[in-house]
Amino acid sequence: METFKSLLVILLSSVLVNNYVLSRFLGICPFLGVSKKLGQAVGMGISVTAVMLLASAITWPIQYLILDNLGLGYMQTIVFILVIAALVQMLEVMLKKFSPALHKALGVYLPLITTNCAVLGVAINNITDGYGFLESIVSSLGCGLGFLLAMVLFAGLRSRIDESEVPKQFRGLAVTLIAASFISLAFMGLAGIVDNLFV
Amino acid sequence: MLDVMIDILTALGVVVAIGLFMGILLAVVSHFFGMEESQKLKQIRECLPGINCGACGFKGCDDYAAALAEGNTKPNLCVPGAEDTATALGTLLGVEVEAPKDVVAFVHCNGNCTATSKKAEYDGISTCRAASMLYGGPDACRFGCLGFGDCAAACPTEAICVRDGIAHVDTTRCIGCGVCTGVCPKNIISMVPQETKTVVMCNNKDKGADARKVCKNACIGCKKCEKTCPHGAIQVINHLAVIDYEKCTGCGACVAGCPTGCLKSVSFPDFAEKEA
After folding, report:
1. Average pLDDT, stretch A131-157?
2. Residue B13 sits at the chain A interface (C-beta within 8 Å)
3. Per-residue confidence at B195, pLDDT binned at 50, 70, 90?
4. Chain A contacts to B (CB-CB under 8 A)
5. What Cα–Cα distance (Å) separates residue A96 from each residue in A47, A53, B33, B64, B176?
6. Contact yes or no for B102/B271 (Cβ under 8 A)
7. Residue B58 phi/psi, 5° resolution?
């Protein structure tokens, strides 16, 4: 029960409190780039979640079984980038073969994710936070869902912005960044909520 | 010193090993899983002529092949490849096809340097598109060939050349892709059936007197051909003779009677001969 509770805390805190986009400011590029339409945003969010899960499932053993044993902890970043990029490429090939429909929906986003900092960030943070294997899987699931949540929220907001009359000086990227900062501020309000949820 | 070297070499070795492993894994995965689809695409691509003319309406042969592989389009859209390509694609994809009709490009203008004059000197960018934007171009006739050769530049088989101020299509080289019809700002090039016998060498839709004023070879819309034609194949629409190619037998009665000589008997080379 205690482990379940701690896993739930990790999941919720990585979705809400330590949201990768809105609190840690990682993965801003797809957050701003692919959030124009809700459908695309959801596709990107799901792709990122899948890749994050897969990436932390692979990088955790690599860190503890290979790098730490050889005293090569400092090679973490390079090795992780290498592994994640290859992994995403492989995922794309597999998707193309086994699920063309899914590939059509998510395929365009996969190359974007290969060197996404949010994915790399999850893999590295799992190690720095000292998570075990299961914990790091749960945390990466949470991070992916958090990314999805941020994307969906922001896509909704952007479609509202598109319809509204924005002063000329703020049109385009300016108003988008301001809107992003407001969501980010709103998410700051969730800090501390998870820790007190299960007391 | 030796310790440092060993450390560096271990790091190097590990990264190279992981990279190699991942590379091999990727190669294996793409070999076993990525094969089937690209094979089909490759076969389709081999059937197409590969000159990227765009007559099919796609961005090029690769794009068309991709659309065919997904089954989104018909296999008879390739004009240069004609019947052979269509049948080859049909057998490959297992569908029935109708062969595309053989057509050639024809320039409906005979306003050469001796027949027409210029209304202004034009000094700008020497393309038909640019020239036509400036008061319809420097030529006296607002319908005629400008002679800067946009069509010649666009032609994938170099079948068009500009001679004596107007574009000519070398019908032995024309593959019937229709790219030139799209780039001509005056729309004077059209695709005519390969078995066409008689053509109108003018595009001037002004009244007879106005047309005559700007070009000696213009169609003046006198309707003589309309009356002469024993098969009812010619109609004058908007002061311009228009031939119904299906009714025309090529008897030549209209050509003999035309006062300005804007009608011409032609015989385009057969596609079968062309390949031989």
Report:
1. 92
2. no
3. confident
4. 62, 66-67, 70-72, 75, 78-79, 82-83, 86-87, 89-90, 93-94, 96-98
5. 14, 19, 8, 20, 37
6. yes
7. -105, 175
Residues in chain B: 276
Q: How many Å apart are CA B52 and CA B48, to the nearest integer? A: 9
| Angle value at C-alpha B70, between B64 and B72, nearest 5 degrees | 70
Q: How far apart are CA B112 and CA B262, in angstroms?
A: 12
* A134 Cβ neighbours under 8 A, 6+ residues apart: A7
Alpha-carbon distance of B207 to B221, in angstroms, equals: 7
Per the listing, tokens 């569908």 go with B95
Chain A contact set for B30 (CB, 8 A):
93
Please name each of the domains of chain B with its CATH number.
39-100 (1.10.15.40), 103-275 (3.30.70.20)
pLDDT at B275: 46
Chain A interface includes B252 (CB < 8 A): no
* pTM score above 0.80: no
Write down the residue that tokens 């290498």 correspond to.
Answer: A82
Is B14 within 8 Å of A70 when comparing Cβ atoms? yes
The complex's ipTM works out to 0.70
Is the model's pLDDT at A187 over the cut of 80? yes
Q: Bridge partners of B263?
A: B200
* Cβ contact, residue pair A97, B36, below 8 Å: yes
Which residues on chain A are in Cβ contact (under 8 Å) with B7? 71
DSSP secondary structure string for all residues of A62-100: IIIIIITTTT-GGGHHHHHHHHHHHHHHHHHHHHHHH-H
B20 lies within 8 A of chain A by CB: no
Contact B7 A82 (CB under 8 A): no
Instruction: For A77-131, write each residue's pLDDT tens digit.
Output: 889 998 888 888 888 887 777 777 777 666 667 777 877 888 899 999 999 988 9
